[in-house]
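ok so I'm stuck.
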Amino acid sequence: MKGIKRVFSLLFLIWSFVIFIAAMLLALPFIFFFSTLLRNKRGSNIIFFFLKAWGWIFCILCSLQIRTLNKSSIDPMKAYIYVCNHNSYLDAIAVVLAIPGSFKPLGKIEMVKVPIFGLIYRKVVVLIDRASKESRAKSVEELKQDLANGQSILIFPEGTMNRGDEPLTDFYDGAFRLAIEMQTPIAPMVIINARNLFPRADPLAAKPGVITCIFDKPVEVKGLEPAELENLKARVYGNMEALIKQSS
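replied:
not stuck anymore, here's the structure
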């Protein structure tokens, strides 16, 4: 029985990879066209229409469902700094489909090397090389400009994929420092069950199922000073950890 499950998982993994690439190839020309033609929030909104189409095609053909809770707490007309836990490659699909409107994610430069995906990644992500002080400073300035233009951004505050047993790893300061400097509210969201459906440590355990995305109430930062950064970070961490534990 275990062998049959492994065979099923292998077939599902191959099918998912084929659909992932095929759907991305369909979206790629539109994303390149509009990212070149419109370098503003309107262009980002159009690009995300095609990204969401890519996400829905992938989910429908791979029997995945993205369920979103508490989305009514988010005003799609406002700019937020979205912060989210990160523990599966499926998180990329989840955030695209769950977050209303468009956003600029902060992402590791290493991902541009992934075939096909890297081409789109380069067009929609604010790239950062964490080993380069110059790159870190440049990415922060780009994120600030996006927020000033009314564009939401997304930062995984753990910095990388969580491979441990705890619900969350320690948060970096970046998202919270930006929130205070730009006086932009933080919109926490947690992703539940993505790791179970596609564990990084064991891709052959991949399977279809339901991923749940839960928004917490946005955290206002109006009037906060840099000295309050640690308290803000701890508050968001605590809220997100509680959501994960309640829902897992």
